[in-house]
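Q: I'm teaching a short session on how sequence maps to structure, and I want students to see two examples side by side rather than one. Could you give me a first protein with its sequence written out and its structure tokens following it? Keep the formatting plain so it prints cleanly on a handout.
A: Of course. Example one:
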Amino acid sequence: MQNLILYALCVGSIISLTAGLTNNLSYSQIHSEASSDSGATQIFTSTTSEQSNSASIQRSSLSLSAANLKQPQILKINAPSARLQGEISVNGKVVQRLNDSSSKLDLSPYLSVGQQKIEISVQYSPPTAAVSVEVQGSGNNISQQTSGSGTLNYTLDLDIQ
């Protein structure tokens, strides 16, 4: 019985390791806090990572109150040991081009009540570098990190009520 349990643990570890390597060594971490200040709430609803043409596609969803738009909703992209080339778009409109190792953007002026879509499309080199994406504001904090492919495609779906 102990041998069977040990065998099952080994197989599970191998499958997890293989899945991690297949997904271009992608790693993601999500954290969200609810804020009771002014009755505003943020609820993180989902995140996924898909494999497509050897580039990782990452997606997160967030619901927040329109009252939160009065406060800065800061999007940070950071790759300390890499150079980023790409763009940030809100609802299909490019709002910032990336050509450095980091970027910071207040999303609030571009957002309104309803469904909003923030897309980040970045090439980075060297491909082994770590790139982090973070959204901070009004009690929420979402962070996502990836490495290993040289390409970051990230979508944040916002539902603002």
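Q: Perfect. Now a second example for contrast.
A: Example two:
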Amino acid sequence: MESIWDKFSKMYHEKSQVCLLTWAYGIISVAVIVVAGLIALINQSVGVAILIIPLIAVAAMCANVMVWSLIRFVIESHEAKEKAKQRAVKQAAKQNSKK
């Protein structure tokens, strides 16, 4: 069975940084929620105050995913336009060479 570290290593080598970033935010959020719960057993107000950290982590994760998606969209649409231009130039060159 593949360990969690092997999966993370595989994702890293496959260049899926967004997935790794999402996992990191998730792990940090869960760990802080558990710690906040334990602290809340001793002092409720401090435990509740610590819960702001996972909230910030989730907000940052959402912002990172949205920005990454926008960047990918812009890059991929630009690449598609460039490929279409190159195909048009090749087709025009073929038609000119046939004449």
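Q: What should students look for in example two?
A: Point them to this: The chain has a mean pLDDT of 82. Also worth mentioning: The chain has one domain: 4-98.
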